[in-house]
């Protein structure tokens, strides 16, 4: 009997403190995404989870006791794209098109260190073209402040 692969949603919570600012970071992992033989609407559990978190936050905000509200909304999706192929898979396009209205998407070329610099550049350009072609809105990093030093500006530009 064939075992069906499901998309599980696993939460990991990490407390971070940087320069005196405390932050609780919740990482939501989706092991099993895209691994099934039939990936039709396999992105749906992820979309439903994002919607549920927004609805819960809205209900908490609308309630009477708003002092201890936990914000479990999904603010960013780091979407890893396989380096082995010729751009985006149909599953990648379908997933990003389903979620780009709900959450900021940051596409990342997975295992980029296995490619040469020219292969990385070629792959990134191909992915950017496909993202534009399919009308997928991805997160656009903001411009850095004009009073930042030149080294920081160069680093910021390289990241973009």
UniProtKB/TrEMBL annotation:
PROSITE patterns, alphabetized: G_SEPTIN
In terms of domain of life, where is this protein from?
A: Eukaryota
Tell me one Pfam family matched here.
Septin
SUPFAM superfamilies per UniProt: P-loop containing nucleoside triphosphate hydrolases
Please give the InterPro entries that the UniProt record associates with this protein: G_SEPTIN_dom, P-loop_NTPase
What GO molecular function annotation could you give as one example from this UniProt entry? GTP binding
Occurrences of domain Septin-type G (ranges): 1-160
Q: What is this protein called?
A: SEPT4 protein
Which source organism?
A: Bucorvus abyssinicus
